[in-house]
Design brief:
With 117 residues, the chain is an all-beta fold. Helix content is 0%, strand content 54%. It is globular, with a radius of gyration of 13 Å.
Amino acid sequence: QAQLVESGGGLVQPGGSLRLSCAASGFTFSIYFMSWVRQAPGKGLEWVSSIYSDGSNTYYADSVKGRFTSSRDNTKNTLYLQMNSLKPEDTATYYCNAWKLWEGDYWGKGTLVTVSS
């Protein structure tokens, strides 16, 4: 069955960097539109970034634009989120999502990112 597994979260100081990964299995990763969504403690879901199936286009929330970069390696069935210049307000659980109309809508269990000194 379809599975998404996020990794790479942890504790980082403000201004630091982290790279999240999302490993996909059980479906044809290369044809799916992929996104990162986060949820800060006690708050709702916030869309962070999306990337086309072939990686040709990426989109970012204003709150992360210029600091975060989404990419994917379809040969490795993996989605990435490079996060630079991290701020305390980036503290959240980060989820990856795979979506394709009429095919599927899958979510991982998330990885926690904590930005604190």
